[in-house]
Amino acid sequence: QVQLVESGGGLVQAGGSLRLSCAASGMIVGINTMRWYRQAPGKQREVVASIMSDGIRNYADSVKGRFTISRDNAKNTVDLQMNSLKPEDTAVYYCNADRVQIIGGIRLSRNYWGQGTQVTVSS
Which residues, at least 6 apart from 54, have a Cβ–Cβ distance to it below 8 Å? Predict the structure, then answer.
């Protein structure tokens, strides 16, 4: 099992910044892609940013140029630096990780979620 614990959410005014952190613990060997998702009230959960174990990053169009995802493989953490925040960024933000194992020549992948952290951007 992998446990993911987010921190860093809160209330901020539009134009401000927040930094979210996610710490992974447990069976962390084999974790490759880590992601941040968000879910606003009444909307589907959407991926915000992802980072692979080799550092390749991807961002949703809505956050490109404003958000930066980073990870520290030694500390098993992934962060999301959010700048120029907008009211439409208000959501619960979730950390997500894929863990891959090769057992008997078979590739097994399992996905894990954190409990979420609230980000509220006031106008």
Answer: none
Neighbours of 15 (CB within 10 A): 11
**Looking at residue 29, what is its pLDDT?**
85
Distances (CA, A) of 91 to 73, 86, 103, 107, 109: 27, 11, 38, 34, 28
Tokens of 68: 């930066």
- Answer yes or no: are the C-beta atoms of 96 and 31 closer than 8 Å: no
Residue 111, pLDDT above cutoff 90: yes
* Structure token pair of residue 16: 């401000």
Q: Confirm if 38 and 50 have CB atoms less than 8 A apart.
A: no
Q: How many residues belong to the chain?
A: 123
- Of 64, 28, 69, 63, nearest in space to 51 by CA: 69
pLDDT tens-digit series, residues 12-67? 999 999 999 999 998 888 889 999 999 999 999 999 999 999 999 999 999 999 99
Q: In whole angstroms, what is the distance from residue 3 CA to residue 120 CA?
A: 25
